[in-house]
Amino acid sequence: ESFAADDDDDDDDEDDDDEESANADASSEPPQSQPQSQPHTEDDEADSIVVGPKAASKVRLETLVRASTPSERESVAMEEGKLRGLTVREETHGALMSILAGIKNHPGRSFVVGSDLRGLAKNDEGDDGGLDFVCDFTLLSFARCCVELGALAMVCDS
Question: Which of 23, 39, 65, 104 is most deeply packed, by most CB within 10 A?
Answer without folding.
Answer: 65
